Each structure stands twice: as C-alpha cells, then as structure tokens.
Amino acid sequence: MYLLYKKRLNQIEKFKSLHASINNSLRYLPKLELQIRNLLDQHEHSLLIQTIDSIVINALSLQIFTEKIIVQRSNLMAQNLEKMALNTNEDNKKLIKSLNWHAQKYQRLKNEMNLLVIKLINNSLAIELDILEQKLNHTQFIKIYKTKKMRFYVLIYAGLVSVIVITFLINRRYLINKVMRHKKLSERDQLTNLKTVEALFLT
C-alpha cells in the first residue's frame, strides 16, 4: 500500500513541477510579445504582429481548452511566423525565435500535464484498494485497512486531489478572463492600425 501511496505522491510532485513550468512560459510569452511589438513597425509588419498576438491568445486558450484544432492552428502559425521573421533584423529574429520556442515548450508541457491529470483522476486510490483487496484475503485486508497508517494515506491522497481540482477551477476562471482581456486589447490595436491606414489614404 505504501508503494501505491508513493507512486501517487510522485505523480502529484510531477504535476506541481509541470504547473510551475507552464505558468513561467505563460508569463514570459506576453512579455516577449510586447518586446517584439515595440521593435517592429506597426504598418510594415502588421501581419507578423497579428500572428504573434494569435499565438499568445492560443496559448492562453490551450490552458482552458484542449481541442486538437487549437494545437494544429498554433503549429501552423508557428511555421508561418518563422518564415515572416526572415524579413526582420537579427534582434527581432532572436526574439521571435525565443517566442516560438516558449510557445512550443508550453504546448508540450501542457499536453504532458493533461495526460498526468487523466492518470491521477482515473487511477484513483479507491480502484487501487479494490485491486489490493483481490490480492489479499478478506481477513488480512480488513486488518490492514483499519490501521492508522492506511487511513492516513487515504486522507492525504484525498486532500491532495482536492487541492488539484480547486487549483484547476481557480486557474480556469482567471485564464478565461485573461484570454478575453488579451483578445480585446489585440482587437483594439488592430482597429487603431486600420484607422491610421485609412487616415493616411484620406490625406
């Protein structure tokens, strides 16, 4: 039983590590986006800037949803971004390459964490206790089950799973608001650029 508990504890530690790495990438991507925006000409590289905006928005969306279409769209935009980056200077190329790298890293870690969460949810301690009951005779199982150590392991595991579920619910609500805010800012910037172009044509 202790080995089962250790296995679950290791999985939860891995989840915490992945969660921290994903949050770091999510914090870094918008900062890179802002750096690139400030260095590029808004009119000359408008399509490139829109692609970068979309990559960041997709990354935030992937934190909430897991649809394959989001991943496919992100991969396609990453390829297009690499091509468009060839028309920029060396400093911009490095920043764009870094943004692409972090976006791909985030996508890989997010997929790994999703698979880990499925394992944590599907392979619950209750199922493992059923398997253990089959391997032990009824008398031995009842004796083990009533020990304080067994109850302690069950309570600890239940508590850790509850923390994971609560963390997901809090993050989901926060990220939904973040995606909507980022999308509105991106749309406002695009509208401002469009008005500027119209004004240039009218003059």
Overview of the molecule:
- By secondary structure, the chain is mainly α.
- The protein has one domain (2-202).
- Helices cover 90% and strands 0% of the residues.
- The chain is built from seven helices and no strands.
- It has helices at residues 2-39, 46-64, 68-85, 90-122, 125-135, 138-145, 148-202.
- The longest helix is centred in the last third of the chain and has 55 residues, at 148-202.
- The radius of gyration is 24 Å and the shape is elongated.
Give a summary of the structure in a few sentences:
This protein is an all-alpha fold and 203 residues long. Helix content is 90%, strand content 0%.
Fold topology:
Elements: H1 2-39, H2 46-64, H3 68-85, H4 90-122, H5 125-135, H6 138-145, H7 148-202
Helix pairs in contact: 1-2, 1-4, 1-7, 2-3, 2-4, 2-7, 3-4
